[in-house]
Structure formats: structure tokens, C-alpha cells
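Support case: iron/sulfur cluster complex. Customer-provided input:
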Amino acid sequence: MRRPPDGKRRANPRAAYCDTSGTVYEMPGLEPAFRVGRRFVRVEAADLIKLPFGSELFSMPGRTPVFHDKRNGFTPVGRDAAGVEMWAAASFLCSGYLRTHLPAFVKSADAPELPLWAYAGLVLIDGEFHAPAFRVDEDPRSDPELHLDDAALAAHASEVKERYPENRLVRQLERCATGYRCLCARNFFLGRHEAPLPSSPACNARCLGCLSYQDAGESGFCQSQERLDFAPTPEEIAQVILHHVEKVDSSVASFGQGCEGEPLLRAPDLARAVRLVRAKTDRGTITMNTNGSVPGGVKALIDAGLDSLRISLNSPTEEYYLRYYRPRNYGFDDVKRSLAAALEAGIFVSINLFFLPGFTDMETEVESLCAFLREFPVDMIQARNLNMDPDLYLDKIGFRESEPIGVRAMIGRLREEFPALRIGYYNPAKETFAR
Ligand code: SF4
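Agent response - structure generated as follows:
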């Protein structure tokens, strides 16, 4: 049995489940099981980490937990010894961590769709919660430990609001920092790391897992935050960027946040904002998180002084991409043209890849990704957990399973085949681009 990264011998992991009120219990007599794609698998203790501070636990309604029984193999158990209904329990990892396995469960026919979270496996070791995951980025910017002091945040936020009383974007960021607990918005007011620049109320895609817009009539769950309902002016945006980059060394300011639509739909205005900033200073890294749908907009922003670009993908495979993004008035070729334009311009380019264990790391997807990276040799992959009901996602994208190689093995393969490729979680500052 492989030893955990800390080399210490560990007690055997204990399976966990919860009741319908969400109370979590240890399952006696059966071993933990996990899922990759639609398969049940077991995991070595060495692949489990103590659940990081600030992570969450979720109950999974209408989902019967599956355990491993030495004699009968993978076994669903719907009621405990007292006849109490059992649901699967899941962990949700805080930022910076990549899950490697899903919780193991069987979904009942009338089970509700799950809200937009990245469900990961959950076990107990020596009475402490553990999860199948690893840290993929050591940058501390979103470590929950750094975001506990709400009083300090409130004081800083009112200072900044007083300084820019007319700036609607500052007021929006206060709503994000306090209402949605957006860690980027909190960092803006606390004067550190990365500041968010939500700027677009509209989008030209209809992602299945969109965090800012869900069609209530269509999906059985709501968006995580309300989409921005106004378009900040280039002057308001430039004021926020200048405030941040003048104050913070190695700072990052990023367009394309979870509370907005697609920033490229406002490329001319955002290019003007970047020009206003670059006319005053070259401090800080101005970056854009985008669906990459408007190559012309990408060019305009690069000409204005954009430092880096991050294009989001659920898959490098066109059919899976189209079924997830459901684009309006653009296609996968537009996304590729945006990537090519950014690479040609020599700015720092990242792919923000949404990981679902058993899909992202299956052989056909890994081959597809490697071919994509040979064609578009980006600088970085930002590895993110897909925040969505795993069964709903696999159903909707028309999942055709191939052999999963494992998320850790996939990352290892990428490191081997693309040694210059950076793998992390956050938009890096330009001071570190060369690393
Ligand atoms: S591109 Fe972004 S804003 Fe647009 S639908 Fe997808 S997740 Fe939502």
C-alpha cells in the first residue's frame, strides 16, 4: 500500500454517508467507494488528503451511497441499521485544489438535479474528513484563512467607496465581496493579489453550468449569483484597475468573472479602459477570462495592452464543447482563432479547463487535449473543478466513455509531454510569466 505524501502510515479510510437532514455518519463494516465518470472505483489512502480548511460538505438528495464490500463488491445501501434513509455525502474543495474522484452513489429516478457545486468524494480517517484531491496551485490568494476578517473588509470597502463615490463598479464589487463572498472582490478592497472587473451583462453562450444565468424553466437549479445588470464605463473600469495596480505589487486585474456574461461582447469599451490605464502606468497584469468567441475583440484588446488571456473549455473536443456551451452566433473555430491570435501576439495564454473525473481524464479526451495543445501551445492550463451535477453533465454532453487514466496520471502525462506547460489554478502576474 502506497504511503501518503507526508509518508506517515494512516488508519484505513472509513466510508461516510449522511441522513436526509445532512448529518454525516461513518459507515460501519463497508469500505469507501468513489466514482469516475459512471464507474465505481476504490482509492488508495495515499490519494486522500485531509479536507482543507474552508472546504464544505454537501448531502446529495435522492442519491443512494455506494460502498465496497469485500464479498459483494460495490454495493448501494439505502437505509442504515435503524432503517433511516441514507444519502450520499460529498465534499466541496476550496480554491486551489483539484478533485480526482466523485462520490459514489446511485441516483433514484425522482432525484432532484443538484445545484452548481463540484462534488468530490468524502471519507473519514482517524475521525477527520478526507477527500480524493491534491493542491494544484500554491498561490495563497483565495486561501480561506486569508478571508476571515469581515470587519477589516467592511472598513476597507467603505474607504474605497468614499474615494470613488460615483463609481458603480466599486459598488458592484462591494456587493460581490460581502453578498457573494467573492474572494477576488475581497482582495480588491483588501489591496492584494487579483481584482475582478465584471463588465458585461450579456453573453453569447448558454453554458449548462453557467454560474450567473440559469433558465429556471429549463434547469432544475438556480445560478450561484445574479448577473451584472449594468455596463460600467471604460472610465469606471480604468479607475478600479488604476486603484489596484498602483497599490499592489505583482497585481492582477481580470475581466470575465462569475457574476457577468461574456466580456468580449464589450471589447471596444474594454480596450478603451485598458488604453486609459496603460497611458498612465505599465504596472500590474491586465487579463481577460473569456469564452474566446470574438477573435476580433481579442486582437483589439491585445493592441490596447492586454497582458494575458484565459479561454475556458469544458473539453477540447468540438462536439462536447458545443453541447456544453451551446453558443449563439459563434463556433468552436472562433475560439481557435482567438487562441491563435493571442499566441501569435505573444501574450501569456491559458486554457481554463473544467475537470470532471472519468471524463476529462479518459483516454479519448486526453488524446484530444494533447492534439489541441500541439496545435495551440498555450503557456498554462488552469485546472478547475467543474461545478455541476455529474450525471446531468454526462447526460447532456452525450458522454461516450473511454478508459479513464486518472486525474493525477493525466497531469503527469501533460507535464511529461509538454514540459514548458504551466499547470495551476490562478491567473499569474506578469512578473512570473517567464517562470
Ligand atoms: S460563457 Fe460564461 S457567462 Fe456565458 S454562459 Fe458560459 S459561463 Fe455563463
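The radius of gyration is 22 Å.

Case will auto-close in a few days if no follow-up is received.
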